[in-house]
Amino acid sequence: MAKVFNAEEVAKHNSPESCWVILYGKVYDVTQFLPQHPGGAKVVLQLAGTNATEEYNPVHPPGTLEQYLKPEQCLGQIDPETLSKPEAPKEQQHLEDGSPPALEDLLNLDDIEEAATKQISRKAWAYYFSAADDLVSKSLNNTIHRSILLRPRIFIDCEKCDLSTTIIGQKVGLPIFVSPAAMARLAHPTGEAGIAKACSRFNAMQMISNNASMTPEQIVADAKPGQVFGWQLYVQTDAKKSEDMLARINKMSDKIKFICLTLDAPVPGKREHDERSKSVGASLPVTSDAQKGSAPRPGGGGIGQQLFFGTSPKLTWKQTLPWLAKHTPLPIILKGVQTHEDAYLASLYAPQIKGILLSNHGGRAADTAPPAIHTLLEIRKYCPEVLGKIDVLVDGGIKRGTDVVKALCLGAKGVGIGRAALWGLGAGGVEGVERTLEILQNETRTAMQLLGAGTIAELGPQHVNTRIVEQQLYDGPAGLEKVGMWVSSKL
């Protein structure tokens, strides 16, 4: 019969020498696990001696306990009568109270974000909303598309409009996909599986975050035939962990069709909204040793900092791509390309590299880094041949179907949404994500019809005026000859 502990006894074990936590009504001794925790020992110690279930559950995939802890580390059960029921910490309270609006009344993505903001916790909002430094790149992501004007044509039969296309060799129902977006269960219990279910309705592609709050197996379990997924990879300093994950992904290659190697955040950006939303450990009635005079991790202690702990900053063209080829036969997308030089370099590694995702990490890494549209125009200016060698995708700040169409006109094969999917989940679960995709689908179709385009293939640069944005582009030398020499000599 399992031993039963009272909360007062558990509370005594709140130090690095003896660290117990309560999870799902059971008491665990995690002392030996502290050095191995991917987010660092401090994150666990802040919750030492307490009921950590509410903090743990939304950010850990089911099965994590079984994966990392030995059976004997489960010491017994907690007497529920001895657990105090304190008021929810400020970080976990909702930003506003009130019943959610009917989804059909939400007419655009701003409406959906506003609805989600009223439903999710402060901590979830801070993580989703946050961006680096002064949010310059995030803001520019959202506004840059307004400086590109459409050039509608007339006297063209536009009754029929087909949004289906091919991305990375896979047929999809929309040119819109879900970019890697972490910690979806902070928004809604259905998490990333809920996003997958919504995508299935539209046959839209989903890139699964390396830091998903569910396992990849759980996310793709109920996928429909032909539904397309990609897996985001952050290479860990302990490469064996990444190799083991790739082995798991390889077994799901009937659904997960490519690897999205993320390169735009080798180190975490400074996200002040996220960092101000401290761990609930700071508000608990029991003070653990981690909170007694301990120095904070550089850059603060937000969710973003915790997720990046253990990510390798040492990736290179010379070493990483050959290593990746040894561990997966799946094609590669490089996420985070922000200059034409790197786009050109990536094209030299086809066919291993099947595509690139122009992205500044949602403005969450290097603030004042260019929006994807800038990089796309740079490619058209300096090395347009790249568009014919590999698929070029974009993400960041997409709010309207016109934003989608403008990117497609400039040569993008697909357009990604990240936060928008999370806001949809927060606003209404699976149905909220469906509403997000439905709005973008309808707006994209309308924009194409007004341009006189019946298919994605009919869209082209003749449909947009980019002169205003072109004034902001990099105007230095192309530098591609030097890039070629560098490749041959150093790679």
General description of the model:
With 491 residues, the protein is an alpha/beta fold. It has 20 helices and 17 strands. The strands form 4 sheets. Strands 9-16-15-14-13-12-11-10 form an 8-stranded parallel beta sheet. Strands 1-5-4-3-2 form a 5-stranded mixed beta sheet. The model is unreliable at 279-300 (pLDDT under 50).
Topology:
Elements: E1 4-5, H1 7-11, E2 14-15, E3 18-23, E4 26-29, H2 41-45, H3 53-56, H4 64-68, E5 74-78, H5 109-119, H6 122-129, H7 136-143, E6 149-150, E7 165-167, E8 170-172, E9 176-178, H8 191-202, E10 206-208, H9 216-220, E11 229-233, H10 239-250, E12 256-262, H11 272-276, H12 303-308, H13 317-327, E13 332-337, H14 340-347, E14 353-358, H15 372-382, H16 386-389, E15 391-395, H17 401-409, E16 414-417, H18 419-451, E17 464-465, H19 467-470, H20 480-490
Parallel strand pairs: 1-5, 9-16, 10-11, 11-12, 12-13, 13-14, 14-15, 15-16
Antiparallel strand pairs: 2-3, 3-4, 4-5, 6-17, 7-8
Helix pairs in contact: 5-18, 8-18, 14-15, 17-18
